[in-house]
């Protein structure tokens, strides 16, 4: 019993660290991308670069974005809750629902609470004000993370890849359609990451005494692939954006096709990489949060 409590305590500390780290990353993304001139310029370059090849991807982008409606959110939430309930996990169903609702509502509230100064970098969208974080992206990511939590361990890794892929595609789609700046999508993933850590703490508190954490249920390889892939994508994004920063100061509308494409592709890589890391962190911990239960022996 003491060993089990120690393990739970260690997991709880890890989840608190994750929540604080992702909240700090969210703050830094907001401060750099929104409250610095170079950050706004990089976002605008990426958003302007979405015109390159746009006619080829308009169809898939529209289908992805149209799928993220209020009705689809309710259906997805209901399905996730149903999966948890048929597994006999009432606390899991409630927690997954709170994760989706909490992350989605938080993203909308933050959009109106956070400020965006006008540095004259993007006059066409200055009147729109702050758009960070992206609500659509937060919805997709929260559903993906909740899916990782509720799926049985036999299909959990597959669900993680599919969910992370869908959420990443949704984040890039908001950029491709011109709905959001890349920092908006990255911030949305971090909001979901914070809520995922908080949901994990709730699952620990409600864990039954019969819970049996097994290392055989850990998806270490899948989590490592997601984490390494995400890290490499973020590094590639950083290299691309640093190359742009080294360019002479030129108005965005005067940039050539190459820097616009690098800004767009580099930002897309950052969006994909961030979601992959968030999913990897959830997948690496979920076997401790949603363990198997020992069968009760009838006397």
From TrEMBL:
Database matches in Gene3D superfamilies: Phosphatidic acid phosphatase type 2/haloperoxidase
One Pfam family, short name: PAP2
Domain Phosphatidic acid phosphatase type 2/haloperoxidase: from-to ranges: 92-200
Coiled coil region boundaries: none
Name the record gives this protein: PAP2 superfamily protein
Source organism: Micromonospora rhizosphaerae
